[in-house]
């Protein structure tokens, strides 16, 4: 136990720890047991500056309610003080998936999301000619035209979720875990990049 606490203190001390979609609907995809994750939280939560559970829930996707989500953790061994001190946010998903699934580079997506967010555009279909021209001028030295070419004539879109406003509250020193690594976790990464937030991935509990 001393060795475990030493490792946690070295790697996790002062981190804003964010758990993404570690929830019962995706348990079959986990590469770890939920009991092991709860044991990790019990032994490490005092090291975190904050603990946040992002999840797909009842309000966005008709999945688990916040109360049932908390009970799931408690039933699998999480201490009450861990859950009582944590924040829970029903985030939804598929904000940037059209670009992600079209193999646009992650940094290009983050730049486009940043541009939309800073210009108060919530849906890429609302980008008018002037905004597209402004975007292309701003990123012409770093980005290719993938986002423009994909989205300009598309019926699908990138949209800016309320999650962006929630993540904006965090300072630096963010650590992420959860999944899926190329799906919802990746969307949270892109959102943080768009907000210029520094983060690292805690691999033992990714899936």
Give structural notes.
The protein is built from 11 helices and 5 strands, in the order αβαβαααβαααααβαβ. It is α/β, with parallel strands linked by helices and 207 residues long. It has 2 domains: 2-94 and 163-205, Rossmann fold; 103-151.
- Tell how many strands the DSSP assignment holds: 5
Briefly note the CATH topology name of the largest domain.
Rossmann fold
H/I helix tally: 11
Distance between the termini: 25 Å
CATH architecture of the largest domain: 3-Layer(aba) Sandwich
Strand-residue fraction? 5-15%
The major beta sheet can be summarized as: 5 strands, parallel
How many domains in all? 2
SSE pattern: HEHEHHHEHHHHHEHE
- Tell me the helix content: 40-55%
Radius of gyration: 18 Å
Give, in spatial order, the strands making up the sheet with the most strands.
3-2-1-4-5
Using the alpha-carbon principal axes, give the shape.
elongated
Mean pLDDT reading: 92
Show unreliable segments. Answer: 1-9
Short recap of the structure:
The chain is α/β, with parallel strands linked by helices. The protein is built from eleven helices and five strands.
Structural features:
207 residues, alpha/beta, 2 domains, Rossmann fold, 11 helices, 5-stranded parallel beta sheet
Architecture blueprint of SSEs:
Layout: H1 2-12, E1 16-20, H2 34-44, E2 50-55, H3 58-61, H4 66-75, H5 80-85, E3 87-90, H6 97-101, H7 106-118, H8 129-139, H9 146-151, H10 163-168, E4 174-178, H11 184-194, E5 199-201
Parallel strand pairs: 1-2, 1-4, 2-3, 4-5
Helix pairs in contact: 7-11
């Amino acid at each position: 136990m001393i060795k475990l606490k030493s490792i946690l203190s070295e790697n996790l001390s002062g981190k804003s720890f964010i758990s993404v979609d570690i929830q019962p609907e995706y348990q079959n995809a986990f590469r770890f047991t939920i009991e092991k994750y709860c044991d990790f939280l019990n032994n490490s939560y005092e090291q975190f500056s904050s603990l946040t559970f992002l999840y797909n829930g009842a309000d966005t996707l008709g999945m688990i309610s916040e109360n049932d989500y908390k009970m799931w953790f408690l039933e699998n061994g999480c201490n009450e003080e861990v859950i009582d001190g944590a924040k829970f946010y029903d985030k939804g998903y598929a904000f940037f998936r059209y670009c992600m699934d079209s193999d646009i580079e992650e940094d290009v997506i983050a730049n486009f999301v940043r541009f939309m967010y800073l210009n108060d555009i919530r849906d890429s279909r609302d980008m008018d000619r002037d905004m597209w021209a402004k975007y292309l001028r701003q990123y012409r030295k770093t980005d290719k035209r993938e986002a423009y070419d994909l989205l300009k004539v598309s019926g699908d879109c990138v949209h800016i979720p309320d999650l962006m406003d929630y993540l904006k509250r965090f300072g630096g020193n963010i650590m992420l875990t959860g999944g899926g690594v190329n799906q919802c976790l990746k969307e949270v990464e892109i959102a943080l990049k768009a907000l210029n937030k520094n983060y690292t991935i805690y691999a033992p509990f990714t899936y």
